[in-house]
Each structure stands twice: as C-alpha cells, then as structure tokens.
Design goal:
By secondary structure, this protein is α/β, with parallel strands linked by helices. Helix content is 31%, strand content 18%. Among the domains are: 172 residues, Rossmann fold; 60 residues, no CATH class. Helix 4 packs parallel to helix 5, helix 5 runs antiparallel to helix 13 and helix 10 packs antiparallel against helix 11. The longest helix has 20 residues. The structure holds nicotinamide-adenine-dinucleotide. Nicotinamide-adenine-dinucleotide binds next to helix 2.
Length: 460
C-alpha cells in the first residue's frame, strides 16, 4: 500500500506532464531560445487482457464518454456489468457489451450483492451518488474511475481518500482536461521554464448560454441545495488546471458572484411557466426549449426517450425539467462568478466563470518572468521577452483521441486502463490524492462567496 504525502503528490503532478499522448504539432515561427519540441513521453503498452469494468450510471458520461472507449478498444476494456435505473439505458449498454442478465442491476447497491466480479468501477452516477458507491466499492476491493466532483462535501472527499489509502486502490478522478494534448502542452511549457517563473494567471471559462441554461438553470446542477455549487460542479476542472499548472499549493481564496439574469423578475411579459404553455415571446427567446430541443435537437442525451420525435419531445417539454421557462426554474447557482487565488511563491490567479457567452471554451493567459503563454482553447502562443520570439502550438496536429473534451475523455480512459492493468497509479495525472487540492479550492471559493470574506486554506 502506498502512503501519499505532499511530496508524493507533487511528484505525481510533475510526472503528469509526461503524458502518454505525444504532442507533436509544433509550428515554430522563430526557433532559438524557445524550445518548441515536446518533452518525450513514456509510452505504456496496452494491457495484455481487457480491464473488466462495471458501469454505475449509464448516462451521458457512463455510456457516452467512457463505455465508448471499450467499443473502440475492446482489447483494452470490457464492460461486464451495469447498474442503471432507466431501462432504456440499461438495455442499451447491456446489448452493446452482451452483459449477462445476472450482472444487470437497477441501482448501484445491488452490484455489491455479488462478490467482486470486475477490476474496476466506473462511477458516473449523479453527484449525490458518488460517495456511497465509492465507499462501498473501495471496501469491496475495486479500483475506481470516479466522476467529478469526488463527493459533495470536503469531509466526504476526505473519507474516500482515507479509504483509498487504506485499501491501496487506484482511484482516478475524471479531470479529463489533464488528458488533452492542449492542456498537457500548457503544463509542459509551464514546467519547462520556457516562460520563466510563473508570476500570475488569468483564466476564463465561457460556459455558453445554451449550455448554461441546460445544465445550470433548467438542469441537474441548477440548485446548490439539491446538487452542488457551480464552482464545484462545473469549475473544479478549472481550479484543477490552475493548481496543476502553477504546481504550488493554494493559500488564499476570495470569490464574488451571483445569479443576475435567470430569475423570475427578469421573465419577459407574456412568458409562461413552460415554453409549451403558449408563451407569447417563445419565438424571440434565445432560450426557448422548443427551439433548443425540438427544433435543433441539441443536448438530447439527458433526455430518456424510447423514440425521439416531435411528439415525444413535446411531451417531455410539457412535463419534464427541460421544458421550464428559464426565468422560473427554482435555480440558485450564480450565472457569473469571479474568484482570486493566491498560491505559494506569491503566484496569483484570477478565474472568471461566465454563463452568458455566445461561444463555449476556456481562455488562459499565463504571465512568466521570461515570457508569457496565451491559450484560446485551441492554440497556444508562447512568447519570450529577451529574444522577442514566439511560436504557436496547434494541438490538432498531435496525436489526439476523437472524443469529448478535446480528446480528454478517451485520453483519460487510455491511461486508466493501463494504470489498473499494471497497478501503477503514477500513469494517471488525476488520482484522488492529487485532485483533493483543487476540490478544496472550489469548496473554499464557494465559502468565500457566501461569507464575503477571504478564505485561507490548508496547503495541499
Ligand atoms: N468529467 C466531466 O467533464 C463531466 C461532465 C459532465 C458530467 N460529469 C459528472 O458525471 C456524472 C454523471 O453525469 P451525466 O451527465 O452522465 O448525467 P446523466 O444523468 O446522463 O447520467 C447519470 C446516470 O446515473 C443513473 N442513476 C441514477 N441513480 C442511480 C442509481 N441509484 N444507481 C445507478 N445509476 C443511477 C441515471 O439514471 C443516469 O442514467 C455527474 O456526477 C456529473 O457531475 C462530469
């Protein structure tokens, strides 16, 4: 069993730069002082036999993001069991992987009625159902792929960490951005000293207005009393990237933000409880559920329809959560939030979460003592002050998995199956031990927002 102290965690984070996806697409405009070559990555061979997994929650993530890896790479991963209450979803995954009837369960608890019958669990249940399966699963001897957030409170996160260390299990937290060529390159440049010491960072997450309404106004993460604060639910990826890139523990946090737009007081005259109730402004409303779901058919993976057609979608909009007027959703999570962090070595970072944006994406600028790095979510531009040099790094030319989150979903699975097969947690860059620090940053940011004060942190 491996005991992790802070040094081990930092070591693991450093190791994380040596990912298994080799970034190769470098357009060097002016070679010289700047090194445009990627750090060579250690390659991990494929497992000799498929890693056997049980999927808990076969929804958008459990089925779409992760099981799809086994369909593409059946020699590396096999889905041998499922727990999923929605029959359609349970049947879909069972059929795809020929899961025997005795390994199909309605809810996660029933998986543990049987002795251990796989190597790992994929925990992709809703946020309030991470803690239970993680604790019971660890106790039963499984390794875990654990969707973020790890759990809903800091205490619960710690419980899972303690049990992980006690059992010696491998627990990967799904910080999928760490497994994309784009963020790996960002981390590699930051670590290499190319731009000198990191002085400060400015990072923005653009949620995009339709995504905002789907997930954080109408959707499952719209009310922090029922799910989680948005800074944890959506932006623990961002706190994680900041922690990873700075490679320093965070000391202090302050945060402001509120729900400004999606409130009943902003409901236009003529609008109704549901878009299907004869709303007078439905045609001109950018958030019309009829336009988004029935006409454009986007974000449909959170619907559970036997058949997708105008009639079934209309019925869903008349009764389900996604048909509600965005100004009348019992939502309370902010639609904009700004957070400042101070790390060791006096590094500062400002993070802006924006719900009302036209495009989605993440924009990052890292200011170093010798140069700076600007990323627009697609390309990175790295500059050097003294040589007045710059080059642009385009990840589309590097080896990349064709999957969600810029290739990160399958990039994570690639490393996860190898970590489990060879029992080497160091293959992963987002073990639970490493991910605790950025979860704490998110919990503290929310405390700061609610309490209107600067929060100090234990150094992780
Ligand atoms: N890593 C990322 O970037 C990322 C992105 C989106 C969501 N998530 C997280 O992934 C998790 C799943 O999100 P999703 O978008 O797939 O949601 P989803 O609703 O599509 O999937 C969750 C599934 O869990 C099932 N479920 C509910 N109760 C269950 C139970 N008792 N036992 C077994 N299954 C049960 C639901 O029926 C559903 O099919 C959430 O925690 C979410 O925050 C992570």
């Amino acid at each position: 069993m491996q005991h992790w102290n802070r040094r081990d965690i930092l070591k693991a984070m450093g190791f994380a730069t040596l990912g298994s996806v080799i970034p190769s697409g470098v357009v060097a405009k002016n070679e010289g002082i700047l090194s445009s070559e990627p750090v060579p990555s250690p390659r991990h061979p494929a497992p000799e036999k498929p890693v056997r997994v049980i999927v808990l929650g076969a929804g958008a993530r459990g089925w779409g993001a992760y099981s799809s890896y086994a369909l593409k790479y059946p020699g590396e991963m096999e889905v041998v069991g499922v727990a999923e209450p929605i029959p359609l979803r349970r049947e879909r995954i069972s059929k795809a992987f020929n899961i025997p009837q005795e390994n199909q369960f309605e809810t996660w608890e029933h998986v543990f009625d049987k002795p251990k019958f796989a190597d790992a669990l994929i925990i992709a249940t809703p946020d309030d159902l991470h803690y239970g399966p993680a604790m019971v699963g660890l106790d039963a001897g499984y390794d875990l792929l654990l969707e973020k957030p790890i759990a809903q409170t800091w205490q619960e996160c710690n419980d899972i960490l303690q049990l992980t260390e006690k059992t010696g299990a491998i627990v990967a937290v799904c910080h999928v951005l760490r497994y994309t060529p784009y963020f790996r390159k960002m981390k590699q440049v930051a670590d290499s000293g190319e731009i000198g010491d990191i002085i400060s960072i400015k990072h923005t997450e653009l949620i995009e207005h339709i995504h905002m309404t789907h997930s954080y106004v109408r959707g499952l993460w719209n009310n922090s009393d029922e799910s989680n604060p948005i800074i944890l639910a959506k932006s623990c990826h961002d706190t994680d990237i900041l922690r990873w890139v700075t490679n320093q523990p965070c000391k202090k946090v302050s945060s402001f933000g509120s729900l400004s737009h999606f409130t009943e007081s902003n409901a236009p005259a003529g609008s109704t409880e549901r878009c299907t109730d004869g709303c007078k402004v439905e045609r001109e409303c950018p958030f019309s559920a009829i336009k988004i779901y029935r006409e454009r058919r986007i974000w449909m993976h959170h619907f559970s329809l036997d058949e997708v057609n105008d009639e079934t979608i209309t019925r869903e909009l008349q009764t389900g959560r996604f048909g509600r007027c965005v100004y009348r959703c019992n939502n309370n999570v902010p639609d904009h939030q700004i957070t400042n962090f101070e790390f060791e070595n006096n590094i500062t970072a400002s993070f802006s979460l924006e719900g009302l944006t036209y495009d989605p994406g993440r924009i990052t600028r890292i200011f170093g003592s010798k140069g700076d790095m600007y990323g627009d979510g697609r390309n990175l531009r790295i500059t050097n002050f003294s040589g007045r040099e710059h080059y642009t790094w385009d990840p589309s030319q590097s080896r990349m998995f064709e999957s969600g989150h810029g290739g990160g979903d399958h990039g994570l699975m690639h490393d996860f199956v190898r970590a489990v097969a060879f029992q080497k947690p160091e293959i992963l860059s987002s073990t639970i031990q490493v991910s605790m620090a950025s979860h704490l940053m998110a919990f503290k940011a929310e405390e700061s927002r609610l309490n209107s004060r600067v929060e100090t942190m234990v150094l992780l």
